[in-house]
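2024-03-11 09:14:02 INFO worker-7 job=invfold-0412 stage=load source=structure_tokens
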């Protein structure tokens, strides 16, 4: 899998940018705030529909566009080459001020091959694995950060998971709204019956998929962690479902639905007092351990960084094995953070996939002996210029 063409219009620092690519390694060199990360984030959004930097839609638009255009619009477009076909992907973000409203309002549209689609239809057409200096939050951040990581990872190779997740979130909103109404003595508690059953059926499918993927990632990550210089330590990852039961990985979907439904019904009174649902995949977490101790609190910074690097490397392996086609690698300012052993591991992985985009603040980080076949560009002043192309 690889990008053949990329077009950015009014996307943050870029008023208009057009780039053509072949399979290979591309390095973008620029100072901080030059726009390097904006480029990789735009590519990532075409794969996941979400900003890797947690940006709001309105923040994607160029400030110059707000000053010069009545209805500023940002456009991210790419042609993607896959195993046996090509596909065009597009995200359009429009902004406008409505009557009696001084603030800009935005909306997004998604297109696949020029046809308007839902966000879930865009996901999976381009798969990326993004290595970032912010990756440590997967280990040290909140459970929500880890759920977001899982959802983005799974969604790229399982479209049914995307639809199940969307449906579950709608069910959760409806059930929580009903809980608050019931708490205020509006309605009958029997009204929860339908939503309890729906939550159990959809939630069980999400739980099983997450458990399966975490187990596969864990097996590969343990091996990568050892290869990265910690042969004397064991890195493990555990899935922690948002249910008060020990999760049996051999459990059948029917049994899990039944057990989850029972737990939800038994917990109604507690849910009513809180006005929210306490059990389900919206409460899931992951546990990262090094020699049996929590990596977030007991591991050194170097061990944590190695652990998350091992996780990303295993993600590349899993994505390739499931789809038969390698993902695009996005390395956002991470090479300067790695020692030689870790850098070699990432560079070796770069030569095992079709296409890699790397951002660095200094050309010396990517000297010829590290990436002799790389194509190099300079990022500055809202543009990108060619520095060196290797065929």
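2024-03-11 09:14:09 INFO worker-7 stage=emit residues=391
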């Amino acid at each position: 899998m690889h990008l053949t063409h990329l077009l950015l219009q009014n996307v943050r620092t870029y008023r208009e940018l057009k780039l053509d690519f072949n399979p290979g390694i591309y390095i973008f060199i620029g100072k901080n705030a030059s726009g390097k990360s904006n480029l990789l984030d735009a590519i990532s959004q075409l794969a996941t529909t979400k900003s890797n930097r947690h940006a709001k839609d309105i923040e994607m638009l160029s400030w110059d566009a707000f000053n010069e255009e009545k209805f500023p619009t940002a456009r991210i477009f790419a042609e993607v080459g896959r195993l046996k076909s090509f596909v065009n992907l597009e995200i359009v973000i429009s902004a406008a001020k409505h009557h009696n409203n001084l603030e800009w309002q935005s909306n997004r549209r998604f297109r696949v091959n020029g046809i308007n689609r839902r966000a879930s239809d865009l996901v999976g057409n381009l798969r990326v694995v993004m290595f970032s200096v912010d990756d440590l939050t997967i280990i040290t951040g909140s459970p929500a950060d880890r759920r977001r990581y899982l959802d983005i990872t799974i969604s790229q190779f399982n479209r049914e998971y995307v639809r199940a997740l969307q449906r579950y979130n709608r069910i959760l909103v409806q059930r929580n709204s009903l809980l608050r109404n019931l708490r205020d003595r509006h309605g009958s508690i029997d009204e929860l019956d339908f939503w309890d059953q729906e939550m159990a059926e959809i939630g069980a499918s999400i739980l099983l998929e997450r458990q399966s993927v975490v187990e596969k990632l864990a097996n590969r990550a343990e091996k990568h962690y050892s290869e990265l210089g910690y042969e004397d330590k064991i890195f493990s990852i555990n899935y922690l479902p948002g249910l008060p039961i020990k999760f049996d990985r051999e459990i059948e979907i029917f049994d899990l639905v039944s057990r989850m439904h029972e737990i939800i019904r038994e917990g109604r009174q507690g849910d009513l007092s809180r006005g929210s649902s306490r059990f389900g995949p919206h409460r899931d977490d992951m546990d990262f351990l090094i020699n049996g101790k929590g990596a977030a609190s007991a591991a050194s910074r170097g061990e944590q960084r190695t652990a998350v690097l091992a996780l990303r490397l295993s993600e590349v392996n899993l994505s390739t094995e499931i789809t038969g086609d390698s993902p695009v690698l996005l390395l956002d300012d991470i090479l300067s953070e790695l020692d030689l052993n870790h850098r070699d591991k990432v560079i070796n992985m770069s030569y095992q996939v079709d296409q890699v985009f790397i951002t660095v603040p200094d050309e010396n980080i990517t000297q010829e002996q590290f990436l002799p076949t790389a194509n190099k560009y300079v990022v500055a002043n809202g543009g990108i210029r060619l520095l060196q192309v290797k065929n």
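2024-03-11 09:14:09 INFO worker-7 stage=report msg="The mean pLDDT is 91."
2024-03-11 09:14:10 INFO worker-7 job finished
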